[in-house]
Structure formats: structure tokens, C-alpha cells
Amino acid sequence: ERSGSSKDEL
Amino acid sequence: MNIFRLAGDMTHLASVLVLLLKIHTIKSCAGISLKTQELFAIVFLTRYLDLFTNFISIYNTIMKLIFLGSSFSIVWYIRRHRVVRRSYDKDQDTFRHFFLMWPCLILAIFINEKFTLKEVMWTFSIYLEAIAILPQLVMLQRTRNIDNLTGQYIFLLGAYRAFYILNWIYRYFTEEHYVHWITWVAGVIQTLLYGDFFYYYFQSWKNNVKLELPA
Fold first, then answer.
1. Is B215 part of a structural domain of the chain?
2. Closest CA in chain B for residue A6
3. Partner-chain contact B12 A10, CB within 8 Å
């Protein structure tokens, strides 16, 4: 599982 | 969350508030492109499809609701409000904006991180956001005279994009496996579109004269 997700951005 | 991301979100929020302030208190949307506002509403609608299924944080959910609510109310004001709609420069806002959506949709179908409906719509919103400002920039170029609030609105939008790029650079070096080519390329293109405007904005600020774009 990758730690950085762009889905937590707006 | 890092400081750049927070600064990006806050300038984004401020841009929306400045625009709503202009519309709500002055009852005017002069110089504002309805086409761009409609595209932003579609951007948020297609991006936040996971609003109720994918919980990230209270902060995230509230911000998403604010952006959805504000973008649709701005469109409503310009189209439907008895007083505001009379100040809309329809003749200056002739960009065929819905044609921008097709290339974005086709690109999202072929270039995405995962081929699912939600993911394709999310990617579509990223591509569409990158170019959604175009009708507004065309309108600025045509009217040339820009009132303070409109100038600040576009400046804050550009600042939001610039802060997001700094946020990505920061996250790339501090988080593992943080590589998102799609958002990065689209985001850089989007920010570059503001470059010209930034130049004239800073010139007018430095020389303390009213912002005016060259013909």
C-alpha cells in the first residue's frame, strides 16, 4: 500500500 | 498536511470567498465568466463523487462541501439572481466551454491510474480543472479593465495552484511512493496558464496602478 495518496487532496 | 498544502487550500478558499463577496454584497458579476464557473462546478461534482463513501478527515469533507456549495451557488447567482444576472457580460463570454469537456473525457478514459467509473471521473475533473480558467482569461483579455475584486479572485486562484506544486514537491521528498504524474502534469499546465496574468498583476502592484491587460 502506497503511503502518499493524491486523493487526500482537494 | 504540510504548510504549502494548507496555504494552497486557504488561498483557494479565499478566492471563492472574494468572488462570493463581490457577487453577494455588490450584487455584480461584471468581468466574471459564467463559463469558467460552470466548468468549476462540474470539476467539483465529478471529483467529489466519493464524498460519502471515502472518509479522509473532517477538514476534507467540510472543504469539499464548501467548494461544491460555493461553485453551484455562484452559477445560480449569475444565471438566476434577479439583480446579479443583469451585470453579466454575456457578449464578452462567448467561449464554447462544453467543447473543452470532450478532450478531457477522452484523455481520462485512456490515461488514468485505474479504469473504474469513479477513477475516470476523478481524472476527468483533474484535466478539466487545468483548463477551466480559459474562458475567464479570454474574457479578461477582451474587457481589459479589471476591477480589484476580479483581479484578486484570479490572483488567489493562481496562488492556490502555485502552492499545490510546492506541496507536491514537499510530499515527494517526505513521503514514500508519492508519485502522481497525472495530477502533476495537469497541475503544472494549469499554473502556467496564470503566468501571463501574474506578470501584469505584479507589474500593476509594483507601480501602484490599476490592473489593465495589454490588447
1. no
2. B180
3. yes
Instruction: Give tens-digit pLDDT for B86-142.
Output: 999 999 999 999 999 999 999 999 999 999 999 999 999 999 999 999 999 999 989
Domain total for chain B?
A: 1
Tell me, yes or no, whether B210 lies in a domain: no
Q: Is the ipTM of this complex over 0.90?
A: no
Domain membership of residue B125 (yes or no) is yes
Instruction: Flag whether B212 is in a domain.
Output: no
Q: What is the domain range of residue B18?
A: 3-204
Cβ <8 Å between B178 and A4: yes
The answer to whether the Cβ–Cβ distance between B54 and A4 falls below 8 Å is no
B167 contacts on A by Cβ (under 8 Å): 9
- Closest residue in chain A to residue B167, using alpha carbons only: A9
Q: What is the DSSP string of chain B?
A: --HHHHHHHHHHHHHHHHHHHHHHHH---TT--HHHHHHHHHHHHHHTTTTTT----HHHHHHHHHHHHHHHHHHHHHHH-TTGGGG--GGG----GGGGHHHHHHHHHHS-SS-SHHHHHHHHHHHHHHHTTHHHHHHHHHH-B--HHHHHHHHHHHHHHHHHHHHHHHHHHHSTT---HHHHHHHHHHHHHTHHHHHHHHHHHHTT---B---
